[in-house]
Amino acid sequence: VYREFPILGPVSVTASKAALASAAQGKYEAFHNALMGGTRNLNADEDVFAIATSVGLDVERLKKDMESDAVKNEIASNFQLAESMGIRGTPAFVIGDQMFPGALQLDGLKNAVEQARLAARSATPPKP
User: Fold this and answer.
1) Which of 17, 43, 56, 126 lies at a C-alpha separation of 20 to 30 Å from 10?
2) pLDDT(47) > 90
3) Would you call 96 exposed, middle or buried from its count of C-beta atoms within 10 A (0-12, 13-18, 19+)?
4) Does residue 88 surpass a pLDDT of 90?
């Protein structure tokens, strides 16, 4: 589950709001991947909207959807969740009942998932 957590300044807020609003056009994953995997630096709101255009989003609709109560409430909720969990930066991963602040290499991520699966299996009583 991705959670938008805009902590890197005003353009980060724009990008987070745009990402959430992109879901209304069925483009969240494409937009998220373009934001996170691109080589373009996000220095201004126009950079966010250029990426939105590149993945086929209707930018005028996106801008309107970004100001919806649903988008604003989601971001506020994400800040409350992060605070309650002690998350102060990105990325952060919650796998099973463990939190991993910062980036994880693929091997570390796979190991954490496997450990969580093992713990879940041992905590679940066998079926009769």
Assistant:
1) 56
2) yes
3) middle
4) no
Contact indicator for 16, 5 with CB cutoff of 8 Å: yes
- Is residue 113 within 8 A of residue 124, CB to CB? The reply is no
Per-residue confidence (pLDDT) for residue 108, from 0 to 100: 93
Instruction: Indicate the DSSP class of residue 127.
Output: P
Residue that is written with structure tokens 């109560």 in the block: 69
Residue showing tokens 């909207």: 49
- Alpha-carbon gap, residue 34 to 39, rounded angstroms: 9
**49 closest CA partner among 76, 11, 75:** 11
Per DSSP, 39 falls in state S
End-to-end CA distance of the chain: 32
Work out whether the CA dihedral 35, 37, 43, 47 comes out positive or negative. negative
CB-based contacts of 111, cutoff 8 Å, min separation 6: none
Residue where the block lists tokens 């609003």: 21
* DSSP states of 29-40: HHHHHHHHH-S-
